[in-house]
Amino acid sequence: MFELINIKFKNILDIPSLSINEPITCIVGTSGSGKTTLLRMLNCLTMPDSGTILYNDQDVSKMDAINLRRKVVMLGQTPVIYSGSIEDNLQIGLEFSKKLPASNNVMKEVLKRVELNKQLTDKCSNLSGGEKQRLCLARVMLLNADAYLLDEPSAALDKETEQFIIENFVKFVLENNKQLIMVTHSEQIAEKFPDSIIRIEKGKVMVAYDE
Amino acid sequence: MMNNTVMNLSVFQLSIAYIFVLIMLIIFKSRGIKREKQILIATTRMTLQLTIMGYVLMFVFNNPSWWLTSLMIVIMISFAIYNIIKRVKITMSKELQEIIIFSIIVGALLTAAFFIIIVLNVRPWFNPQYFIPISGMIIGNSMTGIALGANKLCSDMEEKRVEIENSLMLGATPFAATKAIVNNAFDSAILPTMNNMLTMGIVSLPGMMTGQILSGTFPITAIKYQIGIMLAILGSTAVSTVLFVTLGYRTFFTKDNTLK
Predict the structure, then answer these.
(1) With contact defined as beta carbons under 8 Å apart, do B189 and B237 qualify?
(2) What pTM was computed for the model?
């Protein structure tokens, strides 16, 4: 659960007050409206010029950023693939966040969830843009974080896979009592979760959860 | 038969060697390559700088004192620092430049002092005949190492920004997120020295050894010095670049562990 109070950042964001407390939240708005900046602030990647962000009633600026990122995992717009196999790419997130490595079964399970039909030992160099995106989604799912921040998770996916993957991710989040905040351009996704929309225009919150 | 002194070279004899510059000028002129000015500047600078250095060294050798030796070392190190900053193509932050200064002083100076005072057992320690040329070689190699490492570190940090940030999002510490980049920078700094060691003695006789042999030193003695200096160069390059990369990567991050 996030709580934003008097957040200001350059002339990009100006949010007097906002609660992000639903299990599923879609942040929508035209490009350049400040969606990604908002998401980055929740992950301590960008610091606001003034104001406070609370995560579960704790001031984010006073928390250890690395610990926060291990609880609140973000997935950026461009899928990043590290050198090595599919397995290396799945394990690296766990390694970075100092968690125990996943077993083969768990990894196969998560690949199924994102519909990536590949062997763990396969090289990643031949993956298409959509496959890379799905591998990145699988990687963050393994991290078992409390909250997920996804920036345009479906940008590289086609319409059908998009729907399937996002629905699957939402299911995963709801089943495990997690929180999902995603920035999206997709009308379809936004329509699917009509009560979960926060609309931002020119750095200001226009709509928060249908108010 | 060994001479114990090198044959003296008269100025007239030396001037004959400038014929090589003349040959080069003729080749460049006839091919229409516009480099005459640079050739002349480079030749003049080389001649002038070495001549001045010759007189400076004559003076320092005739008046051996700890402070003159130290002054020479300070000048050499300052020039090395200036040269590194000039050779790195990306503008470096002030903090990173401070780390360069720290790394070369600690890395090169400690190694040089250790090699000269402990290994060679030079007495008095400031004996300019030993301290100045040997420190010069060590500082020069550390300089090249740090410059190569800094170039690689800065360009990789810029090119791999998205990847580093992605690792941070996955909960990585800046140390873990840049481990491969830091190792690569260290590797490219140390590689030329290693390659140089591989061919040494087969393809080329190193300058210091050649000089000692020309001046009448037994080849075996010259080689012992050469092996020693190579080990010292390896040590100083390693120490100064490892200091630079392990301290330097941190300057790319804020205290909140985000990329600047």
Answers:
(1) yes
(2) 0.86
